[in-house]
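Final report, results section. Input specification for complex C-07:
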Amino acid sequence: MSEITQLIKAGSAAGGVSSEALFTAAYPELRKLAHSRLAQSGPMTLIDTTALVNESWLRLSGKDTLQVETRRKFFAYAAQVMRTVIVDLVRERQAERRGGGDKALTLNTAIGDGVAVADDEALHVHEALESLGAVEPRLAQVVEMRYFGGLTEVEIGEVLGLTERTVRRDWDKARLLLAAMLK
Amino acid sequence: MPSSKNTLPCPPHLWPQFSALLDAALDLDATARADWLAGLPAQHAELKPWLAAVLQAEGLIATADYLQGPSLPASTDDFSPGQRIGPWRLMRAIGSGGMGAVWLAARADGAYEREVALKLPHAHLIAGALKARFARERNVLAGLEHPHIARFYDAGLADQGSEHPGQPWLALEYVEGLPITQYCTQRSLDVQQRIALIQQVASAVQAAHARLVVHRDLKPANVLVTAAGEVKLLDFGIAKLLDDDCDAEAALTQVTGRAATPDYAAPEQLAGGAITVATDVFALGVMSYEMLTGAKPFAIRSRLGAMGSERGEAALASSRAARAQQAALRGDLDAILAKALEPDPARRYASMEAFASDLARHLAHLPIAARRITRRQRTVKFIRRNRAPLGFAALLLLVLGLGLGGVLWQAQRANEEARRAEAVKGFLVEVFKASDPRIASDTPRGQISARALLDLAVPKIKSRFADDPPVQIELLRTVADLYRELREDARYAALQAEQLALVRTHYGPHHPNILDDAVEQGARACAAADAVRCTALQAQADALLKTAGDTSTERRGHWWVNEGLRLQMDSTELPAAQQAFETAVALYRQGAPQSRGHVTALMELAGFEQVNQRLPQSIVHFREVIALAMTLPDRNDAELQTLWGNLGIAHQQAGQFAEAGQAFSQAADYAERTTGADSPAAWGPRANAARTLHLAGEREAAHREYARLIPLLPPLETLDRDLATLYQNYGERLAAEGRPLEGLPMLEAAAAFLQQQAPFEFAPRLARRLLGEAYVRAGRTTEARRELKAALDAYLANDAERNQPVMAVRESWGRFLLGQGETAAARAQFEAVLAVAEGRQFAHIALAHGGLARVALAQGQAAEADRQSAAALALWNQVTGFRDVRMGPYLQRIRAEVLLASGDLAAAQKLEDEAAAASARFDDAQSPTVQRRMLKLP
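Structure output:
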């Protein structure tokens, strides 16, 4: 039985999972995975979080067939972990670029500035979620799972005990609020 | 690290309500949300701006890809110097971003020497089917050759088996330069140099348009200026082919991301509407605005959260520019930028060429197309502007090219008219060519004032065309009209008389020129309120029109307008006056709906109704005439300004502050557009807008307007009628918010002036009432008693008891007496107000009830005090017509006193607190009203 599964089982027995312990165990694994993935991807930088979480799940849970309940809990935590991993990676990459002596641009860099994904979007989403979580905890959780954790609407519904439709409405509302905050 | 991204889109204490309403909005169809927001009940007014700001982004959630997932910044070690990408060798990185990197590169095979900027978009962005699109786009861009467009050399994909297999690349001309706005600032360019740069941009964009390519993302970062001052337009990355089919469009959009930079995006772009050349016109308009004023035209409004594309109109450029630039922008450039920034693409310049051409015309001091001005007005505007000497050639060009256009056009009608037109034209050429010995020798060569030329022309008309009366008549009438426009009334009258004498001998007594003149003379006498002459001339004109058998509805309509003016001078004839104006309107509506006379008739009718307190009808007619005046081909902006201003006053009188404020700001915009922000014509509307805001309790906004206006005004020592009214209103507002000592000097000066020269019959007594009320607030009771009593006597002598102004002055006087302890006399005044209340719901009636409650309290009549104070508040909540929000807290405090006297401390303190809170918003911090009092049981 893998470390993660043990933790989850132990937690359940004690009336609740020690998220801190789970976190500590999952973090290095996910981070390592993310790094190796990104190194392979060349110029492509969009992170396929869904694949990362699934793969890490397979690795961490070993060959045990776990109960659905445990799997759900893991996904919720994995999303949290991924958030930390990604935020750290973005910060690292930015520091690297600053160290690399980026100069004032003499040519507009954009092959479209109004582009789908901005460099530091992930950081901004992370910051905005901190405020949003205070007033709309569920929305913040949905965003965390979907954006950072790469979970599908069905999966999020399962984890949070919501219908798929409610998740979609939460997601739309959260994106609207984030769009206003990220402006 | 503090970041704005942490700021919630609505303050936390409002969140639960905000969130629930947002849910409701999201349940609606996207198209229904704007209406839903507009129709939000008043209790949610506070939430409206927050909701609007959030819903603005709803376009984003319609697409699945917003916040699709996190991405990492491209790592710099993805590429390194010396690596090969296609035929290029990388030299050094010059930029990177979310979409990819840009490197300085050279041909690896040395095929040519020039270095290029090599764009390296992330491969995944140009995957699959999009490759075909990529190739096609390459061909389009390669065709765009223009000195001010950065050249596109080539594009391709790196070979399989190379270091970056499949890496797409685009080779572009490498431009070293500064973004255009930065260049302007760094070189401190003057307005003309900035315009010259804008023209370069326009020519580049025009070239792209000629190849059916719209740029769609014009912004300073995409327009660089080289050290040599050459503009280079970059980045057709999201350009669109105008003839593109849908699929290609969708593909391109995917490649390039959604919209352009929102600051520069046209409304139709934000709303997802059709993209045309007008989209680029708008963006260049925004950029030009920024270059010329240093400010972005929409930043403030859009942040306030107007829905989606409804950013409204941009503020006039000159009003946003630094003081030193304002004069240069006022007028033409204001108009040009306003036209480029029209929210409706159809009303914008139809092409870059038209935009550039207006800029060129402005630089050459030629009339521009942006303002729809008739030929004659254009000529007159020109001449008026040039009473001082002007360039001779420019004058000649104008008068010939534009002033005579009408004559030349008519020439096609008949040979006789053609002959006449030729003669007129020949003559004017000669006049303007002549070097006349009488022109002072110190006049610079080639320069002469337009007025001097006109003076020289008159004797020549007479001598030269003595034997050609038709031409002489034509010329005399033209020149007479020009004098009238120059407000040289004596010269106008003299020439007009000569012209008519000629007409009479040549064509007889029933020629249209003579009939027109008869009606026009009546108009002048009636408008000047000269009752005797007006009556006589109207009768003469009537008789003449009848003998001549004249059938022109227009001329008869004009006569009826004059008749209305005549009748309204007599207060017993008011119903007949109303009928006269209505008859005039009906005649025009039937016979000449699209005429200037129709505008005048409607305007007089609306004005009449306004003065006579028929406000709803007046408002309807003002709106009708504004709509009409805007569609006339010879739109007159000065007139529209007056109309909007009057509409604003009518709304203000009706207590409709929001509508009044809108109307006044329209008036102010027109004034600024035609004459500039610091011209007297713009002061009135701005002052009215400020006063409306202040009356409505929007104190901060009102003072922002005043802060813009007051420094522009001449000092109190140099009052005229308009200025006196303006200072009076400002002083009155200062006194009303608790700053009587600051308001008094203005009120005193204005009152003294208005006793001598009154713009309106009632102005002297109104001035005394307002001055008296300010004295009361300043505690100067002797002067207060003198002024208020004099005002009351004057009102009673000149106005009817049941009219609102009389009720207002009675209530003021009663309130003063009460303050002096003269309870019985005060009571008589309040009762006199209530005696003529007739069930109406005027503010001063509520105040009179409040006064009676105070009287009853003083006399220990608890039941009566309770009844009156409750009636006062009840009525106040339903008041129609004029009011000042500050009356509310006054009435609440009376009620609080009554409750306190009856022993209900809690309820009394609650009302007192409400009153103090309201006053804190409405009044100056120094005003005694803003103090919250702790009440104690007696």
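The first strand of chain B starts at residue 84 and ends at 85. Chain B touches chain A through 74 residues (CB under 8 Å). This concludes the modelling results for the funded period.
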